[in-house]
Specification:
binds NADP nicotinamide-adenine-dinucleotide phosphate, alpha/beta
Length: 314
C-alpha cells in the first residue's frame, strides 16, 4: 500500500463540527432546531441503513429528523402528497426522498418526485431548478455526494484547477453533478460511461479519477495513472467468497470481516490500485460519511435561507 488515505470520516466530522455553531444560532433565532423530513418508501435494506445513518447523524448534530414511512404498496400519488405536505410545513426546512422508489411507481417516479419538492427545501439538490442552477454555477443546494467529494479534495489539499479529471459514471445523482462541480473549479473534465471505448486508456489520463459505477473492484491498475488521486464512490456488498478471496489477501481485514459477516463492503476500485494511486478514498470511510455530512450541511443552509427570506418578507 503506497497511496495516501483520503479520510472521509475525518473531513465529515470537521464539516459537522463547523455546523454546530450555525445550528445553535438558528435554533436560538427560530425557537426550534433546523428540521429535515425524510420520506422512505418500502423496505429496501440498503435504504433502511442509509436512512438510519442520516437520522443518527442528524440527531447527534442537533438537527430534528422526522421520518415518514410509506409501505412498498404506496402509490406515486401517496408519495407526492407527503412531499406536498412537507413543502408547506413551517416545521420542516429540508426534504429528502430516499432513492430508489419501488418499481411499481413507474420509471419516471423519481423525476416526478424531484420536480415536486420545493427547490428551497431540496437538500439532495435533485430538483430541476437546483440542477439548472448547478449548471449555471449559481446553486446553493448541491447534490450531497459530489459536494462532499469537493470538500474532501479541497480540505485534503488536492489541486483541481487545470487538472485532467475523469468521472466514470453519468448518473443524475453522482456522475453528472460531479463533473459540473469539477468543471466550475476549472478542471478539464471527461465523463465516461458504459459505452466509452477503451475506458482504461481514457481513465489513465486522469490526475483526478472519480469512480461511481456500482461494480465491485472494476477499476484496476491499468485505469490509473501513477500518482493520481482516486475517489471511489462505489458501495457494493459482496457475499461471493471466491471474489472476496481473489481481491483481498488472507491477512486483509476484509477477509476477517467476511468470515464474521458472510459479506464485505467493496468499492468500485480494485484494492491493487492502492499500489499505484497517489491518494485514494477507502470504502467504507471515504465518500459515505461525506454524503451524510452534506445532507446536514444542506439542511442548515435551507433553514437559514428560508428564515432569511421570511425575515425579509416580514
Ligand atoms: P447508477 O445510477 O447505476 O449509474 C451508474 C453509472 O455507471 C452509469 O452512468 C453507467 O453507465 C456507468 N457504468 C456502469 N457500468 C459501467 C461500465 N462497465 N463501464 C463504464 N461505466 C459503467 O449509479 P449511481 O447512483 O451513480 O451510483 C454508483 C455507485 O455509487 C453505486 O455503487 C452506489 O451505491 C454508490 N453511491 C455511493 C454513495 C455514497 O454516499 N458513498 C452515494 C451515491 C451512490 P450508463 O449510463 O452508460 O449505463
Amino acid at each position: 500500500v503506497s497511496a495516501h488515505v483520503l479520510d472521509g470520516t475525518a473531513v465529515a466530522r470537521a464539516i459537522r463540527d463547523e455546523l454546530s455553531a450555525r445550528i445553535s444560532a438558528f435554533a436560538q433565532r427560530a425557537g426550534r432546531p433546523p428540521a429535515l423530513g425524510i420520506v422512505l418508501v418500502g423496505d429496501d435494506p440498503a435504504s433502511e441503513i442509509y436512512v438510519r445513518n442520516k437520522m443518527k447523524t442528524g440527531m447527534a448534530s442537533g438537527i430534528t429528523v422526522d421520518l415518514v414511512r410509506l409501505p412498498k404498496t404506496a402509490t406515486l400519488e401517496d408519495a407526492l402528497s407527503v412531499v406536498r405536505r412537507l413543502n408547506t410545513s413551517p416545521a420542516h426546512d429540508g426534504i429528502l426522498v430516499q432513492s430508489p422508489l419501488p418499481d411499481t411507481m413507474g420509471p419516471d417516479a423519481e423525476a416526478v418526485v424531484f420536480e415536486t419538492i420545493d427547490p428551497a427545501k431540496d437538500v439532495d439538490g435533485f430538483s430541476p431548478v437546483n440542477v439548472g442552477r448547478l449548471v449555471q454555477n449559481r446553486a446553493v443546494l448541491h447534490s450531497c455526494t459530489p459536494a462532499g467529494i469537493i470538500e474532501l479534495l479541497t480540505r485534503s489539499g488536492v489541486d483541481i484547477a487545470g487538472r485532467r479529471a475523469v468521472v466514470i459514471g453519468r448518473s443524475d445523482i453522482v456522475g453528472k453533478p460531479m463533473a459540473m462541480l469539477l468543471l466550475h473549479r476549472h478542471a478539464t473534465v471527461t465523463i465516461c460511461h458504459s459505452r466509452t471505448l477503451d475506458l482504461p486508456s481514457v481513465a489513465a489520463e486522469a490526475d483526478l479519477l472519480i469512480v461511481a459505477i456500482g461494480r465491485p473492484a472494476f477499476v484496476t491498475r491499468p485505469f490509473v495513472k501513477p500518482g493520481a488521486t482516486v475517489v471511489d464512490v462505489g458501495m457494493n456488498r459482496v457475499s461471493d467468497r471466491a471474489l472476496v478471496e481473489s481481491w483481498f489477501p488472507p491477512e486483509s481485514p476484509k477477509r476477517a470481516e467476511y468470515a464474521q459477516k458472510g459479506s464485505v463492503l467493496v468499492g468500485d476500485v480494485h484494492p491493487d490500485v492502492w499500489d499505484v494511486a497517489g491518494a485514494l478514498t477507502p470504502v467504507p470511510g471515504g465518500v459515505g460519511p461525506l454524503t451524510i455530512a452534506m445532507v446536514m450541511h444542506n439542511t442548515v443552509v435551507a433553514a437559514e435561507m428560508q428564515a432569511g427570506s421570511t425575515a425579509s418578507r416580514a
